[in-house]
Amino acid sequence: MASEPMKIGLLCGRESTFPGAFIQRVNDLGREHNITAELVKLGGTRMDDPSPYRVIVDRISHEIPYYRAYLKQAVLEGTIVINNPFWWSADDKFFECALATKLGVAVPKTVVLPQKSYVEGVVTESLRNLVYPIPWQELIDYVGLPAFMKPFIGGGWKNVYKIHSVEELIWAFDQTGQLGMILQEGITWNQYVRCYCLGQTNIMPIRYEPDNPFDKRYVYDPAFLDTELAARVVHDAQVLNQALGFDMNTVEFAVRDGVPYAIDFLNVAPDMDYHSVGHQYFEWVVENMSRLVIERALHGYTPGAEYRWDALLNSAAAPAGSPASKVGPTHPPAPVTALLDPQEIAWAWHPYQIPGRGARPAPTDHPANAPAAAPGPDGVPEEQAAGKS
User: Fold this and answer.
1) How far apart, in Å, are the Cα atoms of 303 and each of 62, 258, 290, 389?
2) Residue 324 has pLDDT above 50, yes or no
3) Are 144 and 185 in contact (CB under 8 A)?
4) SS3 label, residue 159
5) Is it the case that residue 232 has pLDDT exceeding 90?
6) CB–CB of 9/371 below 8 Å?
7) 274-299 vs 18-30: helix axis angle to the nearest 10?
């Protein structure tokens, strides 16, 4: 007897290569499970509308507020959304750095700053809790120079400033308007790693060269990390994504003196364009995203992370499969998880092989060929804020 039909929805923007390849591959793989994929179509959502989707992959709601509101209602109706819109709404880069420190992941020293200006109606009396003037020299003494100032929400290498002095910091701050900014230590790196992170634990480290032309930044070099560094990069990426609950993300590491510093790990609608990531990684991400959504559709999903937002608020018991103790303002952090070798992930296709460890046999089925589509970047990375000099 055929299983009950299930639909996978894709919510996306101006991408030209990933959407079609993903939908086609989900339809191919899902046929035996009565699973189909399509673009989500919206035109006004009633508060009691049932969701027709078992899973929705969201790659655009950070730019379209209506989509974000719709996705929250879809979660309420039982849809699995990748990535969870409640978690995505609550996250920011300053919190992530503080969280990473609690989890034992190396990050640059980071300070969150007051805003330069405010919305209409905020007056001097509204800001009585702020210290003035801002102790700029103390902040520079903490993070060191060079440093970077960038928005704590957002990306795309927008409004990012490299700072060499207190005077430059004050000038740059004066340009930021109502943006919320962080000031961050600059990491002088000798290796840069961008990791695709799917399903929280399926990690693919990629050699990344931010100084190259846009279409040559992703370098296919599977053995570019030694065994110890590769294992730590995979482990730290898993820890961060499990804590944050992100099933689709990239984590970027700047390696200094053998230590991988997590530079940016709020990339939850990451670049998946064929013309920027290249044939090998495009094929990998399409196939693994397709297998992930089918896995979620068939088996459901309980986050089970150490740092769920509701646990931080002390508002709910930990979900099934998570550590027994809560984590929040009055509770100690849960222990850091052990490395899960990507080779052990049952649904993963061609999982990353940590150098020096054995690989499992490759699957016999292969994904479709890459699409023939016009170049068009899906997003602009923020890795240059790592501060190679």
Assistant:
1) 21, 32, 19, 39
2) no
3) yes
4) coil
5) yes
6) no
7) 30
pLDDT in tens, 271-293: 999 999 999 999 999 999 999 99
Cα torsion at 276, 280, 281, 286 (round to 10°)? 110
Which of 27, 51, 17 lies closest to 273, judged by CA? 17
pLDDT on residue 86:
87
Write out pLDDT tens, residues 136-168. Answer: 999 999 999 999 999 988 666 678 999 999 999
Question: What are the φ and ψ backbone dihedral angles of 205, each rounded to 5 degrees?
Answer: -70, 135
Neighbouring residues of 142: CB distance < 8 A, sequence distance ≥ 6: 109, 111
- The answer to whether the CB of 149 falls within 8 A of the CB of 163 is yes
Task: Give bridge partners of residue 155 from the DSSP assignment.
Answer: none
- What are the structural domains of the chain? 6-89 (3.40.50.20), 111-184 (3.30.1490)
Give the H/E segment covering residue 70: helix 65-76
